[in-house]
Request: fold
Amino acid sequence: MSSTKIADNLYWVGAVDWNMRTFHGSTYTTRRGTTYNAFLIIDEKITLVDTVHAPFARELIENISSLVDPSKIDYIIANHVEPDHSGALPELLKLCPKAKVFGTAKCRDGLAKYYGVAMDFQVVKSGDTLSLGKRTLSFLEAAMIHWPDSMFTYIVEDQVLMPNDAFGQHYATAFRFDDEVDPAALREEASKYYANILWPFGTVIAAKIKEIQKRAIPIKMIAPSHGVIWRKNPAKIIEQYGAWAQDTMKNKVVIFYETMWGSTEKMARKILDGVLSEGVEAMVWDISKIDRTDMVNEMLDAKGYLIGSSTHDNDMLPLMAGFLEFFKGLKPKKRIAAVFGSYGWGGGAIAGMEKVLRSAGVEIVLPSQGIQFAPTADELNASYQFGKEFARKIIQQKSS
Ligand code: FEO
Reply:
């Protein structure tokens, strides 16, 4: 993708990674690929905000070269040390070795450890500004959104916020702006991104949004480091982040299970019917068949979860164990759950699932339902009642 004008003398010079299918190792399925956004400001001081993932360094350099000679770059802003944004920095610095790099102290330390490349680095803090000539950059530290080194950069005169990972989406597209793409796809990718990357940091995000609102910073555009730029109504995505950060939830239940011989699956389907009978939104998934990234996205606005596993070796099945450990890392708040499952000669899965959920801060609100071998008609009726009762708990639960 060639460079794109964002505003007068402000250009997108990043890269579109059409083929990326897993991100952060295997933790995130990027079905629509991703982008690594970098922005070039042409002013008295030529300034680049962020770079791209190392395999795309050539693309970044070509995009910059279509506008200015890269050796003319005076400043590079490193909002975040993670390699998807800093990976091309060593290659770029070969072309502009005198460019001064700006970022947080933690970013400086991280860059040194990742690349071991000498650079003229200036540490900046919240409230620091940098004059580029006609424009001024203002920096805002954003620790834990989502790494300790993270930082936002704001172009005062253009009213453009460059918040790096915040407000991003893993969404490869030929378009650069939110009003050019399918709104449903954009909503899905923005939500999935928040759920899988930013969910653990809700408290920090809520505080940062308050800080931005208190400072009354006018924002015309939000240009994150992944996906499209929010220009249609940037306040809307800020408002949406506020809602997610405050755990705004719906009367919704995500039911998921792992089954050995189909008995736990039969229970799950009856449980679904029970939940639905109370008018509560619900869905049921076999976790061996569903994408984990999509499931976490659905879990973000659900008040509760019903989780099932057959017992194997006196514990839950391995995919469920892996998923619950991952889910624990998202540090969910205010969610409720109950567990169920079939067993042969012992029922260790129930205790195992409850233990992980409690350690994740999820409240278990109903006694579990365990059945031996295959469910009888009476036991399936009990599963239906189990779902119904859980749905009533959901209705009683606060929405945020
Ligand atoms: Fe935290 Fe997009 O890297």
